[in-house]
Design a protein that fits this description.
Layout lengths: L4 E10 L2 E11 L4 E5 L6 H8 L7 E6 L2 E2 L5 H7 E4 L11 H6 L12 H13 L15 H18 L5 E5 L7 H16 L3 E5 L3 H7 L2 E6 L2 E6 L6 H8 L3 H11 L11
Parallel strand pairs: 3-8, 3-9, 6-7, 7-8
Antiparallel strand pairs: 1-2, 1-4, 4-5, 9-10
Helix pairs in contact: 4-5, 7-9, 8-9
The structure holds adenosine-5'-triphosphate.
The site of adenosine-5'-triphosphate has 12 residues, from strand 2 and helix 1.
Length: 264
Amino acid sequence: MAMILSVENLCVTRGGGTLLDRLSLSLEPGSITVLAGPNGAGKSTLLETLAGDLPPTAGQIRLDGQRITDLSLPRRAELRTMLRQQSLIAFDFAVTEVVAMGLHPHGISADSPHGRALIAEALADMDLSAFADRSATRLSGGEGQRVHIARSLVQLRAGEQRSLLLLDEPTTGLDYRHQLALLQVLKAEAQAGATIIASLHDLPLACRLATRLLLLARGTLLADVPPEQLDPALVADVYAIDPAEAALLLGLGRSPLPLRLAAE
Ligand SMILES: Nc1ncnc2c1ncn2[C@@H]1O[C@H](COP(=O)(O)OP(=O)(O)OP(=O)(O)O)[C@@H](O)[C@H]1O
């Protein structure tokens, strides 16, 4: 069974400011929702709140009918995977050990055949097989980001069902090849039944990935549309950029080309 996430009249206030203002939405299994919007729009706040890690000031978030704030942290870790904007890995773990952390919420041993297979698959997906035994403290920014993504893929896939995957700016630091590889992996996960929501700054990439695009500004949802229906005039207004720039960005993302890593 896949996960339906529903949000009703969500409000978050912090430090006297309204960070999210009466948001309602519903995310279906198999969908990829991309959250776009300027710096400070509330994207990370929304993802943290949807993950159940930041209690809302008002409103409800339900994961398959259960209120997310009623679930314990271990139960939340089984039902949803959250990739945060990353900090450095401070301890001297090997890459494979960091990736194996995704198994813990599901009680699967990294030494079991199933655990080993999940780790190997995620390492291969993020082009990290050759890095498995390297220290995770000695990686470039993009390599480190790929390690965190691989850990999240393990956590998602180790569950009994493909559940909810929340990603906060997952392409940060990734080169073009690895951005495209990530897009391919996410599309495959959605096809396998995952419910995915990701914040992205890159609008052309967002349009290629999303089945649905949410445009957030100052805590308010201004658009919730398939990417091809996103209005360039609204994008220009929200980002305070020239309309021709907005049209160019959206045009780049509306290429009908499939994702290709290298010429076949
Ligand atoms: N602990 C806090 N207390 C009060 N305000 C906060 C707190 N954390 C963040 N904010 C404010 O909340 C707003 C939304 O922040 P958030 O991190 O959700 O934005 P974002 O859309 O993810 O931005 P970015 O694109 O820069 O990552 C910002 O104006 C920020 O300054």
